[in-house]
Write a structure and sequence with these properties.
The structure is a homotetramer of 113-residue chains.
Chain A: H1 2-11, H2 20-37, H3 43-51, H4 53-76, H5 81-95, H6 98-101
Helix pairs in contact in A: 1-4, 2-4
Chain lengths: 113, 113, 113, 113
């Protein structure tokens, strides 16, 4: 997938604009467009949107835009996503041990001793 | 990677919190944490941060958090990321034809006829 | 309030960093920190957080950070907030006429004819 | 300004949708729309946009949307913005003492002893 993303940008000579800061802006603004779809909607309405083909298409498109910029960031700065994810999940497993985190929506900083 | 993410959440019984809206909040807030690293930093400073092992580690961690929630969204709502990305890239290729988009940072809505 | 914000920045010689793009990054990242407080929390939990002095303090602090950067943007680029708000509210009143918008969470693009 | 915002929402019976979490989503998504205007633009291009009446209007409109939701949050949850801002600025003045912060874009956590 990184290759698709790289090729699309290279063909358009967009390397000059795709610095790390603007790519981070890209990820954040696309994530926000995904979130905006659900603004002021109840959980039931959101579930209905995921089942409706037209709104489901819009949701997938916005999620794809997030992946586009996130993959482009990883590709441009040579980040192995699989390794980065595993490393972070292991750190999170220490922060959120199953015994404390199971069934809880507390942030790790809120756990008691 | 979807499987790692699914397992981590399942072991902690977090399905009840991981609805689409909160996962979108998750993606947006983590994307913002990545962006926050670059706040008020010049392009040169950002490049230096990417080369410094300590700040590079932080950048990778925040990018991994974005992938965590984006993958979790895709896994939970059965979205094939590869297909969604290809579909969106094709749409973008029509919006940004090479002839008009090459070397340009204009939004497609700003292209002339 | 603009004067407090201007003075705080001027004393620290921060004009050089406070360009429009980074101030927009400032607003977005602080808004995201406010939102992050409510991540994975139910409506009842959020209401309880607003009543609890400790979490209410955190909420106020993050909202203040949003105002800090939004006011700084307006101050630095000479935007009259009151006028800008009135103008936008009038435009929104046309987009969301009471007859169509009352009691509805639809976006104006979703209204029928 | 809080009164304008309150009245606009009350006339449309939007209290039911304007809970704290969705208002925070409102602030964050509007802040992101402001930021999106500057995506992939250089500092010179951003300055030119602020001088161009058409793009300046768009910038003001998006900033107004941020204020709309931020004011609505403050109005609905009885937060005195002026007090919240002063309190936060005082805390920031301790985090960023002039001696250390002057002319620096470091985060307070990066200051040496």
């Amino acid at each position: 997938m990184k290759e698709i993303v790289r090729k699309f940008s290279a063909e358009r000579d967009w390397d000059q604009f795709h610095n790390a800061k603007d790519l981070a802006v890209g990820i954040a603004t696309e994530a926000s467009e995904l979130l905006e779809i659900f603004r002021f909607k109840s959980e039931n309405e959101v579930e209905a949107m995921l089942k409706n083909p037209k709104s489901a298409k819009k949701i997938k498109d916005e999620l794809a835009d997030v992946f586009y910029f996130a993959l482009r960031f990883a590709q441009k700065y040579d980040i192995d996503i699989s390794t980065a994810l595993r490393t972070k999940i292991e750190a999170n497993a220490r922060r959120y041990p199953i015994g404390k985190a199971k069934g809880s929506n507390k942030k790790y900083t809120e756990f008691g001793p």
